[in-house]
Amino acid sequence: MNESAAREEILELMRRMEQRPAHVEHVTRLALQVFDQLAALHGLGPRERLLLEAAGCLHDIGHVTEHPGSAHHQESARLIRGQHWNYFSPVDVEIIAQVARYHRKEMPELTHNEFKALNEMDRRVVQRLAAMLRLADSFDRGHFQPVQRVTVELRPNKIIFRLEATGSVDREIQAAIRKGDLATAVFQRDLIFVLDEVKPAAVASK
């Protein structure tokens, strides 16, 4: 895969359809930070990292054409499937669509036809990537980018997420506790969220 061209294809669709690019770009950065630091646990590689990047950039595009009775996460998946893709295989596109679809609300279940249709390996990829995207989206719950960076610490029975933030992130942590359900199930560890507040730089004395 031509990764540079594939990334540009993702960004072109995001620029065309995304109403709040600052939010999805920030969520994508946080999701990739989590992905990189959980590598020893999820065992995924560069292909899956790019699929997560795509889902992060596109997870909210459904707001543009949201139809009555269909929530934006479902619309995002529909729009992703409906695009003409040059650099992603049909399976890649389906994984991107499902990761975007599961960034909120329900977790992936075999009662969902699209998820059930994937082979077992691809279902595991969807679960792991969606778990990370759900957390990253929680860390920007209010769309004001208070969490600047996430540092992940792996423990035998828990994962500690240290959130470097510019102020209070109570809302974000409460969202992460709720939306961390998939990560808890997939990684079989408790999730702990800790605020590491970023202090303003000291003003140099004259």
Short description:
The chain has 206 residues and is mainly α.
Please characterize this protein's 3D structure.
The protein has helices spanning 3-17, 21-37, 39-42, 46-58, 72-82, 90-101, 113-117, 120-138, 170-179, 181-187, and strands spanning 147-154, 158-165, 190-197. The protein contains 10 helices and 3 strands. Strands 1-2-3 form a 3-stranded mixed β-sheet. The protein is mostly helical and 206 residues long. The protein has a domain at 3-140: Hypothetical protein af1432. The protein is globular and about 45 Å long. The model is unreliable at 201-206 (pLDDT under 50).
Q: What tags apply to this protein structure?
A:
single chain; 206 residues
SSE string, helix = H, strand = E? HHHHHHHHEEHHE
Q: Detail the poorly predicted runs.
A: 201-206
Class from helix and strand fractions? mainly alpha
Estimated share of beta-strand residues:
5-15%
CATH topology of one domain: Hypothetical protein af1432
| Rough outline | globular
Task: Please describe the topology of this protein.
Layout: H1 3-17, H2 21-37, H3 39-42, H4 46-58, H5 72-82, H6 90-101, H7 113-117, H8 120-138, E1 147-154, E2 158-165, H9 170-179, H10 181-187, E3 190-197
Parallel strand pairs: 2-3
Antiparallel strand pairs: 1-2
Helix pairs in contact: 1-4, 2-4, 2-8, 4-6, 4-8, 5-6, 6-8, 8-9, 8-10
